[in-house]
């Protein structure tokens, strides 16, 4: 609005409409400033140490707003330029000065308010730390109950303050670090409760004490990291050192190489050589890893050698071009640049394949939680020898998962995902030994209900982290394949005017919290179905098969619709969702066409069943398209349409889960035993056998510690019975 006032054109003739518009803008600015200042003054009254500074800034802002209102009070003037009254037309510099004063004073208010928020978070952290010290020293259940109730209230306050701060952060890297720290605090709050109770019940047990001390230590580190993020500082003035990943190293290296097209002199050959050396040093994390397959190791070593050769050739041509800039040399330089970049792309693709295939196999291998189940059983039996055996197995599992996180970090693609990988690595490193100490405590006290509950809590944290890793792997693959940021064509949303002539007339509607909750259940079902479809497509040996390609595309789109039900992802409004549903239905129709073509290759006995399923798919996709294209007005009708779109997408995905294994079976049958399923990795051969199937626990998405913590505080009366 201020920009509009300053940039208005000084026309000789001014209509009444123009004069009224200028006055309305000036009044609107003044009213907005008034409301802003009222909030600032209220904050000042609650914070006496900054009251004077805040009050001065508020007075300046109010004065600037009133000045703008006076200068734009022109609607009643027939000839403002001849009137003695000063207006925007006679003193435009006055408006500029007032606008600058307003900007300066508003900035001061915001900076002071930010300082107050930071102080509130630090004060809240200090309260939590002080209460934690008391909790560490308690010696009776009664005292513990009283102090933990206070601790719970303080953690709830800290959760709200840091949650608001996380939402306000603009730096995605800081936001990811804050999310990681808050996740640690969420899980550790529950661990602190059961670990402390176990220690109180068994005060002479060394493993129980180690278990409790580990939780307190980790919580203190997480609290410290929150303050580092909030204050943008580190202890002793240290700079944050995040290891460079292969992905980011290759990206920077390619940018430098491609920059030679514009400027042959902006960097030295030594700089390029050093950058490549750093990248190749990081590839040793893959080649030295015991979990990297022989094929991946050989390919990475071969590509590393080729990268050195391509750089040598590039440097040779580059040096010649600096001395003699002929057409032939510039063409040779272009070829050398292209070959170097192509080699680096292949190296990036190879390390990505090595990391993600290892992660997928490990997560699938450990998803039944056999070692955790065995620890619980042998702990209750008091079998110390068996517990020792399974703790060794858990330590091996921890090393595998830590290595997986390190390799995934190299190919994560974005800084926030890198930070998430580092957080996951830390979680496995810390939680593994804590599970072991909890299991040892239970084995020493097999009849202790609280020791059993304590082990359950730590095992749940491990299982939850494994579940989170599956989501992280999906996000890393999405970034690499262009489904986040630069999305694939089938994920791109139609643009106004290009795909839908009526789109401009439609206003996007955002769902409120209650409506989000209503579709959350449908969204969860959709998420589970995308996982099932992905599992089925991974079983196909020929990943370029048209049926697989369409299935993967539909799964990706359904996943983005699931994220919408959580208020996350690339689909921000209901209109985005409807467009995605249309594209999803189109992709389903293409899959049906591919199924018809495939039916010509199968035996006559199998053909009717396949064609019947294909017709079902066509019918469902048509219904979804009709629903997605239907015009609706009003919030209630929009929500009904959202619900219908997600429901029909879920139905299509359910059918897809049946179609993919059927097609794979028919293809295998036609190949007469040649097989279309991938063999199991050789390192799985020593897997423990079991007759039971584990179910992955649903991921809890509540604000950290608030709901679950309040439940624990409420149930504190049961402490004595345990």
From TrEMBL:
Kinase recorded as keyword: no
Subcellular location, record wording: Cytoplasm
Keyword Nucleus listed: no
Keyword annotations from UniProtKB, A to Z: Cytoplasm
One Gene Ontology term from the biological process aspect of the record: cell adhesion
Domain of life: Eukaryota
Similarity-based family: Belongs to the vinculin/alpha-catenin family.
PANTHER family (alphabetical): ALPHA-CATULIN (PTHR46342)
Name of this protein: Alpha-catulin
Protein species of origin: Haliaeetus albicilla
